[in-house]
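Researcher: Go.
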Amino acid sequence: MTDVTDVAARRLDLAGTRAFETAGSGVQRRLRLAEFNREWLDGVWQEATKGQRIEGVALAAVGSVGRGDAGPLSDYDLVLLHYGRNLSTDEITRLADRIWYPIWDAGVRLDHSVRTVSQCRTVAAEDLTAAVGLLDISAVAGDAEVVAAARATVSHDWRANARKRLPQLTEAMAVRHHRHGDLAQSIEPELKEAHGGLRDMTVLAALAEAWLADRPRGEVDTAYGLLLDVRDAVHVTTGRGRDRLGREDHDAVAALLGYDDPDDLLADVSNAGRAIAYALDGTVRRASQSQRARVLRVGPRRPQMTPLGYGLFESDGEVVLGTGRLIDSDPHLPLRAAVLAARANLPIAPTTLENLASKCADLPTPWSPLARGLFSDLLAAGPGLVTVWEGLDQQGIIERWLPEWASVRSRPQRNAVHRHTVDRHLIETVVHATGLLRGVSRADLLLLAALLHDIGKIPGARDHSVTGAPIAEAVMRRLGHPEDDVAVVASLVREHLTLIELATRRDHSDPRTIDAALVAVDGEADKFELLLALTEADAVAAGPKAWTDWRAALLGQFATAVRARLSPPTPAVGHAEPSLVPDDLISTLATGEPYVEVVSNGGSYRIDIADRDRLGLFADTAGLLAAEGLVVRTAVLRTVDGIAVNEWHVESPGDTEPEKARLVRGLMRLATGDRGPLSLLDRRRQFATRPSGTSTIGTPGQPRALVVPGASTDATVIEVRAHDRPGLLHELGMSFAKAGVSVRSAHIATYAGQTLDTFYVSDFSGRPLEPAKVAQVVAAVIDTCDGTA
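Model: Structure:
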């Protein structure tokens, strides 16, 4: 037997510097350690038993020693196991002392117990942690049959009681994760207990042992191996058997593992933690689904499938593809699935993600307007975005959309302000920015700037704002945005630190301080509001040290001072009206039928509709389109010589082209007062995607209805900002009709799930509204948007 004084030195020698020299050496290193541990413990056993075989008594190991993946200075977790009949209690106690004392004398940390097989069963039934640990029990020395009996008994009970133990396991796991945090987001990660840590791999094995779900392989095993390597390196470089990778250990551990830059090590550790956490979360859902199937089974169980549109369904708390969906025919399907899942605060099922990643074609470059709109909708989804984005990222879909994402993925941030890696901070900023959308004119540009504002935090960058601006430009052009929008987002990225620095470090009363802010936004009020919202979202997402009451107050005071110097926004241009109505349109209307034309635009549709103008025509048309299940993206509506000439751009979640004849019939029936064509609208409202949870994070706030002064000489112009929902345009149209107001023209736009609609309205005589009437209409519009009308 190895001398006890040489045990620690021998373990460290087996995992010393030379043991890390070759790639992939971790497995062999841990095999050598496991072999040494068992040989030495067997020697301790032989000394304690004087070489005699004792029937029904064995030395067993649990934990990392039992699994064979212990680190150089890991604890020994041992059990002296027996049937309770071969030796007396005193004899077992003396045997245990002869085993434990040499181990203590060797300076090895020891967790020990003496149990019978039946006691193992009792302890496992009462103590969840013990039960999970005993699933890994393995024989070290002595009678292996008693160890096999204990393991078989505990495993049988674990499977039999899976229904009761699963909720206990998930609750205990949640408490542990809350206490130790998310491994992937920590600059000093707890490698064992954190979410995504080594302990979670034992949970995966326990779920598989319960026959509730398969244990993921492949990438998860690679991640597990990396975390074990890092833990081993921590033991070797610190000389202590701890599991936290402290700041002071970054350089030494990185060097031992062959990294030139400690940040590269942290990025790999973060990626490993993310892979394990993602696998664990999905496996827990699989286990819960399996448990529900066992409980509810009365004959064959059919999954409950709630349609969400585009061939996608909600099933067992996940978004899945329908079996008949041909996914290779629609490159927009990953975006559609992501939008629906994030809005509903549901994950996309792993199998569905794998199919989307492997079978869907890449989006054409530049992106289509439809793809851009869907991407904006995804960013505007609120807190549900975090989980959905992580799933897309794990499958490589995000990097297919944004190749630049790879450079900031899991990049650590070495300062006391930031609590997340760069990529997670960007997503958190987007989520917080959704709560500020009502205060800006272009919600989509705010969210894109939030997503890209730190994209320049790449290795070697000195000023990430300056580095990030051209990267943001490249992204925006690939997404197909017009050059004006490209310039705005690039400017926001370049200046995203300007306002907070001016507000907190400069004298507000100095005109040059205000001048600096005006230069940053080119003197444009709209751009200033975008930059101000980005500044707040960035600070809130960074953490409580970046967004204190003091900093918020200073930024608010500074914003007030800047607004006083800004020029007011340019009024909207008066609505242009075509001088002539096409002859074919007039001929159709002469027959008594409305004019309808449907044009396909590659995933979306343009619907041209013309009819004789009447009170409520706008509401009827919008309601009919919503009842048909169509989603309005943009629209331009005008009235020319008593004829409404409207252009609607819509999507069809059911993947069916709008039927021209059906729309014509519906408009004709509505003109006679028949409300039958709108009967489906209430059902569609009822089954609309539910909001993501009850969190107030990312909630845009109250809807707004603003009168735009000086925008038109012959109409009152009302701008409406609200959260879009099925039938909202119909409800707004009804509000106008009930107020006796005629919609002369309208410019409908939906940016990132938020409406930015401008209505030119007049009274029956065709004149702008009187002040009292304006107040009445604005109040009615706000009530409608708020759902209280």
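Model: The longest helix spans residues 262-296.
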